[in-house]
C-alpha cells in the first residue's frame, strides 16, 4: 500500500465559500457563523483524510489562523498561502513541502468524505502517473493525484475537462462522499443526507436551532 501526501487548500475563512453566504446572511452573527461553517467543512475533510490508512502526510495551505490551529490540532502540517496567486499556485506551493513520490490535492469542502473511500480512490490512482476524481456534477474535481511526476493542478471552473485534457486519467468508483463537494446550500443538504462529518453536522444543527 502506497503512502500518500495529501495537500488541502483553504482560503481565509471569511472570503471562502461565498456561495454559502445565503445560509448565514440573515443572522446577526453572520460573519462568525459563516466562518464556523467553512471551518467545519475543512475540519471534517481533514479529519477523514488523516484517518485514511494510505495517507502519510497531510499539508493544509492556508493563511487563516483559526483554520491553521484546528487542522494542526487534528494532525496536519500547515504552510502559508503562497505565492498569493490563487488556488493552483497555492497547491503547487503545498506540494513542495509534501514528501513524494505519491502526492494528491484534495478539495477542502468534502464533509461527507469517508476515510475508506479516499483510500479506495488513492489505491486506484497508485498505478497511474496522474489521475483525478470528478465532482458529483462531473465538471469539477475533488481529487487530483500524481506519482513520480509533477501534479500540474488545473482546479477551477471546468477542471474535470482541464485535468482530462492535461493527460490525467479519470477515476470512477463508488465514492459518494468523495465526489460531494459543497459549493451551495443544495450541495450541503446532499452531503448531510450521505452522512456529514460531525463538525459540519453540529454547526448546521446549531444554525438551524
Ligand atoms: N490556499 C488557497 N486556497 C484556495 C485558494 N482559492 C481557493 N481555495 C480553496 O480551494 C477550495 C475550492 O475552491 P472553491 O470551491 O472555488 O471555493 P471558494 O472560492 O471558496 O468558493 P466560492 O466563493 O463559493 O466560489 C476552497 O476550499 C478554497 O478555500 C487560494 O488562493 N489559496
Ligand atoms: C475549484 C473547484 O471547485 P469548485 O467547483 O468547488 O469551485 C474545481 O472543481 O476545480
UniProtKB/TrEMBL annotation:
Pathway info: Cofactor biosynthesis; coenzyme F420 biosynthesis
UniProt similarity note: Belongs to the CofC family.
Matching SUPFAM superfamilies: Nucleotide-diphospho-sugar transferases
The EC number(s) this enzyme carries: 2.7.7.105
Gene Ontology biological-process annotations: F420-0 metabolic process
Pfam family, one: CofC
Keywords: GTP-binding, Nucleotide-binding, Nucleotidyltransferase, Transferase
Transmembrane segments annotated in the record for this chain: none
InterPro entries hit by this protein: CofC, Nucleotide-diphossugar_trans
Enzymatic class: transferase
Annotated function: Guanylyltransferase that catalyzes the activation of phosphoenolpyruvate (PEP) as enolpyruvoyl-2-diphospho-5'-guanosine, via the condensation of PEP with GTP. It is involved in the biosynthesis of coenzyme F420, a hydride carrier cofactor.
Reactions mediated catalytically: phosphoenolpyruvate + GTP + H(+) = enolpyruvoyl-2-diphospho-5'-guanosine + diphosphate
GO molecular function: GTP binding; phospholactate guanylyltransferase activity
Binding site for phosphoenolpyruvate: 141, 156, 159
Protein name per Swiss-Prot or TrEMBL: Phosphoenolpyruvate guanylyltransferase
Amino acid at each position: 500500500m502506497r503512502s500518500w501526501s495529501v495537500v488541502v487548500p483553504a482560503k481565509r475563512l471569511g472570503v471562502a465559500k461565498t456561495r454559502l453566504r445565503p445560509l448565514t446572511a440573515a443572522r446577526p452573527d453572520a460573519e462568525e457563523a459563516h466562518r464556523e461553517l467553512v471551518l467545519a467543512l475543512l475540519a471534517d475533510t481533514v479529519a477523514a483524510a488523516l484517518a485514511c490508512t494510505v495517507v502519510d502526510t497531510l499539508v493544509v495551505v492556508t493563511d487563516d489562523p483559526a483554520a491553521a490551529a484546528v487542522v494542526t490540532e487534528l494532525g496536519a502540517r500547515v504552510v502559508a498561502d503562497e505565492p498569493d496567486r490563487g488556488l493552483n499556485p497555492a497547491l503547487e506551493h503545498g506540494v513542495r513541502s509534501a514528501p513524494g513520490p505519491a502526492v494528491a490535492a484534495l478539495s477542502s469542502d468534502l464533509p461527507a468524505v469517508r476515510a475508506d473511500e479516499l483510500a479506495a480512490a488513492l489505491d486506484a490512482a497508485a498505478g497511474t502517473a496522474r489521475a483525478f476524481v470528478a465532482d458529483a456534477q462531473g465538471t469539477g474535481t475533488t481529487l487530483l493525484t500524481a506519482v513520480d511526476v509533477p501534479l500540474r493542478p488545473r482546479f477551477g471552473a471546468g477542471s474535470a475537462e482541464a485535468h482530462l485534457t492535461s493527460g490525467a486519467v479519470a477515476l470512477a468508483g463508488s465514492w459518494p462522499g468523495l465526489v460531494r463537494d459543497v459549493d451551495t446550500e443544495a450541495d450541503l443538504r446532499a452531503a448531510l443526507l450521505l452522512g456529514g462529518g460531525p463538525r459540519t453536522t453540529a454547526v448546521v444543527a446549531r444554525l438551524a436551532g
